[in-house]
Structure of CCAAT-binding factor domain-containing protein:
Amino acid sequence: MASPAKKRKQPQGNEERRKRRSGGTLALDDLKALGHQLLSSRAHINNLPVLLSFLSPSSPVALALESLISIQSFFVPLFPEIPSSLSVPNKRSEAPTDDGEEKDVELVFKDWLRERFGEFLNGLIEITVSEQSVDALRDVALDAIMDFVKLGKDGRFHSAIYHRFLHRIVQATSAVDPLLDLLGPKYFKYIDVRYFTYTSMDKIIKSFESKIGKATLHSDEDSSKLSSMEFPVHIMYNILSRCPPLEAEKEQSYEMWSQLGISSKEVGKLSSNDLVSDAEPENLRKVDTDVSSSSHITKKIKLKFAKAWISFLKLPLPVDVYKEVLASLHQTIIPYLANPSILCDFLTRSYDIGGVVSVMALNGLFILMTQHGLEYPKFYEKLYALLTPAIFMAKHRAGFFQLLDTCLKSSYLPAYLAATFAKKLSRLALAVPPSGALIIIALIHNLLRRHPAINFLVHQPIGDENDRGTSVEDNRSGEDARESDNGHISLSAKLGTDPFNIQECDPAKSNAMRSSLWEIETLRHHYCPAVSRFVASLENDLTVRAKTSEVTVADFSSGSYATVFREEVRRRIKQVPIAFYKVIPSSLFDNSEFPGWTFGNQQNDKQELNARQNEVTV
């Protein structure tokens, strides 16, 4: 006979089942009751699918949050018993044995739990990725996912759940910045989270690379497929850029999210080829089995960091991502690679593109050349080609001109190369804004001071160029090369002509050594006072280094019309020009300057008109 208490609860259970069958909505109290029943006994295991149905971004926040907490509390103690595979069911024997019937039933129940846990995990991931989710619900869902990530077997990091999570983020069709803003500060500070982020991103990027590799630009279908890959590439870059590299000097103690962190099991997954590919072979032939060793962790993190970024740089990057990568490559990637020379192909290919992309690739390429022994014979030829009027108005012009000044600093630079850069800069001074002219004067000042062999460009009399290049007759026409009646060669063709060829791409063939810096003389009469004053610094004898000093290009590299005007307004003027008038003017212009026009006030005009009428009457 049923107890009275059970009789009182029975109608409530019938009402809940009726609501489920009819598709009616449950109240918050009903969900709490279902959650308490689920946690109290396995007899209420059928409450689990009901709670899962409310775990959706479209559900009311209170209901979704209550369902999430109840289901998480249910799965946490059972998580070690759930089969490790989240996608492939466990294989069971078709014909159960006599004594194994109960075991087979238990396996069926675990498989059912595994499927429900997969649905729960999918619901959590959808909440974190969806734009409809509120921040509070997204935050709780993210914490729930990461809690299961650290509940792997024997305290290991559950890389399968984390990989599934990142893969869904990359496949998102809407912006995931709110999620990444939560994920980065809260979890990327843990070393094992960074490690498995790089590992999973490397796998995800390679899968995308295989899809892109099959597509070509010749068909519309493949072109649309390539364009559809741009948004995932943006997400990949956002994840990698938000995951900070390992700074071994600053991070003395490595904080792990899971109990074991980067377990010794992961060491076995690293093949000898992988270990040698991005670091010195003699340092990685023997893998340290001590998991707590900081040097060992540093090597593993650097290896995964390099593999993830190299895989990403092999993708066809959108232009905006391409520029962002090049702008920060020398600060966020190169210093943390064990062997930065693996980026030489990417940087040289970017440097050969030309335009803004070459300007942004210059910084990283210069670091590889000066610090890692990269040989690039056409470096100065490409650098010379970047000097155009447009570069003086580019967004990244400040860094470019500072780097240009550094590249031309070596005393081993050939004289013809230094002369070519000085001459082209002086020619560009005629076509750039005042801020650009100030940069050019600073660069030429430093070139003349560092390379005394090109000081002849300041003043080169006619005829002296024969000692510095080819013969003068090579550039003359037949009539100019003939001797006149008095036996002297006619120099009419030389007067007023400049042998320098600014259109020549090869600095060695530009004839800069036979020219002069006559353009600098025109800057003395520049309309901008700052330019005309600054050019006077070139009048000093720059070969005497004891009496002169180099100009800091950084002080002028980020200049513009606004900065020039602001400095001119702040400047204190010692001598003020004075305008003297015998008679105080009553208008801006005098009537005699514009016949037929009058510029006085109306009262004076009427008086003048009346006076003229009186004269006519008399």
